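Hi P.,

Sorry for the delay on this. The queue was packed all week, but I finally got your sequence through. Input first:
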Amino acid sequence: MLAAEAQQEFERFLAASGARVVDLDVPSAVEAMLAFYAGVRAEDCDLDQDGDMLLYQWGTYDRGEGPRFELDLTRQLMIDGSDDDEIWQLSLTFQLAAHPAVPALELESSRAYATASGAPILAISLTHELVG
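Then the structure:
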């Protein structure tokens, strides 16, 4: 695949197993993104130069509707040989109701959220930017 086609390729990858993005819960989304990263390479990115990376982040945020726990998986693709450091990002973002204990959780404890089922994907997006 090419970096610019990442979202369409991910959706095709899911469809091959009978899944759709809107139906993924947290565990199946993590499994799907890991399998997609391991099995589908970006032809225009150099893996050895960190041109194709899988990133994750989590935290509790209040975006005006009360605190929510957010988990984000992002495949970051940097075009090989691009003069402008062309970056594409395919992201899956989940929001779950925050628990009062969330701010005190450490890395080890945050795994509990990965086992929650039925959490809706807040967004899937493919973004593109030129850095430089």
